[in-house]
Structures
1.
Amino acid sequence: MSSQKVSSKKKAVDAARKRIQTNRTENFNAFDIATAIVHGKREELAKAITLIESENPSDRPLAQALLQEVKNLASGNETLRIGITGIPGVGKSTFIERIGLDMIEEGHRVAVLAVDPSSKKTGGSILGDKTRMDELSVNPSAFVRPSPAAAALGGVARATMEAVILCEAAGYNRVIIETVGVGQSETSVREMVDVFTLLLIGGAGDEVQGIKRGIVEMADLIVVHKADGDRIDMCLKTAQSYRNSLHMFPLPDGGETVEVMTASSTTGAGHIEVRKQISDLTMNWHKSGFFMTQRANQQSDRMRSHAKDILFDKKMGDPSSQEMWDDLSKEMKSGKQSAFSAAWSWVYKNPIS
Ligand SMILES: Nc1nc2c(ncn2[C@@H]2O[C@H](COP(=O)(O)OP(=O)(O)O)[C@@H](O)[C@H]2O)c(=O)[nH]1
Ligand SMILES: [Mg+2]
């Protein structure tokens, strides 16, 4: 190695060492919490998730420092993020409990998170009924976290994605996210998982299930659920009709056919097949490179959305901007300006010409 190269390498090492040292002193708490998380301390993980869910702006610097420390320390082992969606009552929680326990039996560690933007309104959470995940939530290889209480979907989605990162750093190599089927929440979960699974009820049409066509198109895998007892035939028929209609859709970006399967979480029927399909999809995506491409694209999208938030907050931080916001907002409400033109004027301090 030339002496020039040696000296530039030494400089890089010195710089890295200095960075670590400053992080240790300035963000001592973050470093300690991150270390505890990486060592699998559940209590610290739960506390850290509470911190990242906080809507208090003064908690953000520590939350960000913590996420950065976790990133520096985490092993980077392979993980899989699975999204489960479907209308309330379709059996998502029951399905997740069974698939979670089966994954643990296969040697995985499983974290379960929820995206439920309605939880603040109803005062509850979709995972609040722990009886449905009572076995999983006490399993030492599982971490079950109820929905964050943040009101706006944006806040819930950001907190959930950050919770995924923390759970993975804590060694949970399978992260399952449950979402209620209300409009935008599916889209935001789609953007944070590798495999997006839609649960359907046999015998009920799309309209009855409140399923929008767009959601069917987002799915990597469809499971007609509660296929047990006298519902089996109906579920098989529903599965067939979805298979027929999916022929008309283009293949998803990953290039793999969307399988429509039937399963019961009461009897366990179909669960082996569902797990196999999830692992086949993942394996094929790893081979084709789609797995990493999708994650990279998801990260770029998040960077963009963080940048939007940061820019907005930065501008709002200026008192004169805030005043202007209030004035424009009054004008808009009185019908003098459209929402777009008010926003434009606020950003450019000039009306649209
Ligand atoms: N027959 C049958 N009932 C189920 C199955 N899975 C869940 N259930 C029942 O469906 C109801 C709703 O389940 P839950 O998991 O809370 O649904 P979620 O709202 O989608 O999370 C509960 O009463 C479950 O016991 C299943 O595979 N077969
Ligand atoms: Mg549920």
2.
Amino acid sequence: MPTILVIGASRGIGFEFVRQYVADGARVIATARTDAALEQLRAAGAEPLRVDVADPASISALAWQLDGEKIDVALYVAGAFPEGDARQPPTKDAFDQAMHTNVLGAMQAIPQVAPLVEAARGRFAFISSRMARIDGVESSRGWTYRVSKAALNMAVASAQLDYPDALLVALSPGWVRTAMGGDAAPLTAEQSVTAMRRTIAALTPSQRGTFVDYDGTPFGTW
Ligand SMILES: NC(=O)c1ccc[n+]([C@@H]2O[C@H](COP(=O)([O-])OP(=O)(O)OC[C@H]3O[C@@H](n4cnc5c(N)ncnc54)[C@H](OP(=O)(O)O)[C@@H]3O)[C@@H](O)[C@H]2O)c1
């Protein structure tokens, strides 16, 4: 039975990963930061862990909470999207929220979780965004978010070199109907996650450290 870890699983894309992997018979360890979300994860068949990825003390507890595990698929899904464009400077709070949630949390998770993924010769996917692309950027909407997800992609590309027995990727989920994606998004969480699970399963060594779309299409350039 494969072991799956979903970091940031209270709702949206993260919860859908939990739902689908549990339905497939996997053992799923899933994190959230509120009592209600932890209870919802338990009810969904997951082993819940309390983690606030933006709180270094909280996320640094992952190492002992996961001591001895071998993780076949780890997913870093937690994300924050502060509004705003390049006509205004970001507030310190908005910058810190995006950078701590989308980048620092992932950089703190990597040294704790990647060795456990290596132990299973598994895969570690980080949910990035098409908005991180530097090539072909179409507007500055979500400026701080774009910067944070581009930084996440670099964290993934560079960390890959230190964990040769794990396969790390940055993965765009597409535009998905969640609290973050809004009602106009073309993909449901179920459709996005179904495609991403297929993509993760089909990753090849040549895709190590790269940035890939939900359906497996390589972005090619960053
Ligand atoms: N929806 C889209 O169209 C889209 C497009 C591109 C990329 N993404 C990325 O996909 C990922 C999931 O987003 P979503 O669409 O599912 O959005 P969502 O429904 O708004 O979910 C965001 C998730 O991140 C968690 N989170 C935020 N801050 C956290 C923290 N400090 N510690 C732990 N968890 C935290 C939330 O937990 P709480 O419930 O505790 O707040 C929630 O589970 C994000 O990384 C997002 O950037 C989404």
3.
Amino acid sequence: MERPKAIVIGAGVGGLGSAAKLAQSGEFDVTVYERMSFAGGRFTQHDHDGFQIPTGAVHMIPHGKKGPFAKLMLGSRSKGGLDLKRHGVDLLPTSHFACRMKDGKFQSANSVYGLLPWFSAKDTVNLPGLLAKGAKKSWENETEDGRTWLERRFSDEFIDFLDAFSNFAISLRFDQMPASTVVRMLQNSFWSDRPHIPKGGCKGVIDGLRADLRENGARVKLSHEVTEILPGTAEEETKEHRFCVGIRRRGRDEATWVGTDAIIHNGGHPNLLKALSDDFEVEEVVRTQIENTQAVGGIGFCFALDDDIPVRSSGVTMLPNLERVGGFVIPTFSDPSLAPEGKHLMITHQYVPDASVKSEISKGREDLYEAIPWLADHGEEICVHTYHRNWPCNRAPQGAELPMDIGVDGIRCVGDGVKAHGWMMVEGIASNVPNVVQQISQSM
Ligand SMILES: Cc1cc2nc3c(=O)[nH]c(=O)nc-3n(C[C@H](O)[C@H](O)[C@H](O)COP(=O)(O)OP(=O)(O)OC[C@H]3O[C@@H](n4cnc5c(N)ncnc54)[C@H](O)[C@@H]3O)c2cc1C
């Protein structure tokens, strides 16, 4: 018997993860369409003279082997995971839980408790209260921002350190997020593992997902953009299906029509609304929420470092008190394959408070040379990337996520616009994949 067809729009880590889960279930005939000529979206890399330069993610898995991402990618199938170890996917620990550079000096810690001696006694006394605070869900009628909440309990120095981490990880500061989001994010970070680095960089995971899709008979079609989603009855050849999807191959003018019974959209809500025909009703309140949601931008520098650098750690290193840059990471101290032999790759990240990207880049560069005394002698800037518009840091700000269900049966959204409460970056994406796939199965 022919299986129902499911298409996944976008080969980002959320799209490929969902496709792999659908394909493993054997219930669907799965095809992924990706408009770019490469898979992985903002979670892969391009080789630049041996340096593995990210398309987005700085090769960090925030919660290591204990977070939702590891559970999904490495967990056994009986526990809801994809078991991608079979395809060589692995996560390598960073050398420290967290680090900081302050006044030119480097410090490292191996657990949250290892951080505490850097700060005041007040921070040690109040940390258990933060860890125990109920924040699994957003607080009702919440009006307070995260910084204000923390300021009543912790020293400025401790908050600035954590806020630099927030800048580095999600391009937002604590005063830009609801308090319950900040509390939950910190709990998730403190309770779980140190950050890990995917073996072979982000592309190691993407290659594993693609191998798994191949093994289960699913296809990934690159350079194919989905431009329209119509009811199946719109075209003669798709009338047996719930949807008729218009697909444009790069370099060709005419679209082809493909019939499908289920859609997982990984390309962001605004792109979904643009493609969706008026035949499908989306409530005004949902449209307005999507229209009012601003993607979050950011800027990242990549430096080639020589092997004489004094900092020899792959731990996320916070640069508190800087105007722009939140921190940096040198992933080659966990996976040397990310740079040519005898060299290291350093990746920085900074939030963007001002729309003038050019001046933000200059300010970030100034920040870096001022805060890292050895950078001028041991580093060479390879590139600087800005992330905005359709290639942002986050399609929805942390704490203002969009619904995975926009009210159209058979269509669900996955990716960084729909992360679960308090889960950041790919942890948030992974935490939603099982729900999305389950709802798609149930919609048949
Ligand atoms: C600078 C930066 C650093 C980061 N660092 C980290 C990190 O170290 N660790 C971490 O966990 N997270 C990190 N993140 C976040 C993480 O990279 C992203 O959240 C994640 O990669 C987003 O994945 P996604 O599944 O939402 O989709 P995306 O990566 O956005 O992929 C969606 C894909 O859909 C395609 N698409 C869109 N529309 C269509 C269409 N109509 N037809 C066909 N294809 C379409 C796009 O081309 C794209 O490839 C970082 C992000 C940035 C920008």
4.
Amino acid sequence: MVQANELGERFLQHLEKLDRNAADEMISACLREGYDPEVLLKDVIIPSIDVIANKQQNREVVVAQIYVMAKIAENEINKVLIEMPIKPRTKGTIILGTPMGDYHGLGKKLVATFLRLADYEVMDLGLSVNHFDFVNMAIAFNAQVICVSALLLHTALGITQIRKELDARGYDHIKLVVGGALFNFNPALKDKYGADAMAPNALDAVRVIKELTGGD
Ligand code: B12
């Protein structure tokens, strides 16, 4: 079976060429041949997205290219997710979304996946979520944690509004966990926006939430 790093290089080339069909054929073939979907996600698709994000940082690609690459990557993430085993979720409920005005969804999707794989029930409220909806849903579903994925500076204020709303309504025991490019660039923003914790990636999101909620 082909090694994950070789597959990663191939997948990255397909993304860079904006070749949706080649990316799709490659991932479909891997799944047909019995490749572990979790390995495909962690060692092939995510590292390729990281390379593209870095290129964007260095202005080697433009927004239009990023848009198409993100769409191709998202399609393949969805395809892989369908193949992942669904286990009974017993570790508690987590509310997840992006702040109002933020339409970056790839990181959120990965965080939801890794939390589900770690047996959390994740209610993904989607993109551009009002702070009242985060809080109302957390209360209604007795969630232990609200997770906010924030990539844009100008919309991250929604996180402070969630904190204020939780405190004002006497639900300050519900933990607020943040992540996304914004916090990877500047982890200190976590305190500025009143979050309890941040994590730099989806794997660490699971670790941080376990620590906060006392899970094993
Ligand atoms: C892809 C992308 C887009 C795509 C989004 C497609 C989609 N379906 O999501 C498109 C092209 C649509 C887009 C649009 C825009 N974007 Co954009 N985009 C990016 C880019 C290149 C990569 C983001 C990404 O998907 N990364 C891959 C994922 C997997 O990584 P991630 O989101 O960081 O998630 C990981 C961790 O952060 C963590 N994590 C994520 N969420 C959470 C949540 C919790 C609770 C935890 C614990 C952890 C966690 O785990 C994830 C997996 O490991 C970033 C650059 C960057 N370096 O991030 C810019 C970036 C975020 N975009 C930016 C901007 C400005 C925009 C636009 C305004 C247009 C523009 N001028 O570029 C619009 C705004 C649209 C809107 N209103 O939302 C800026 C934001 C700057 C800022 N400080 O505000 C960035 C940083 C680029 C830059 N350097 O200028 N973008």
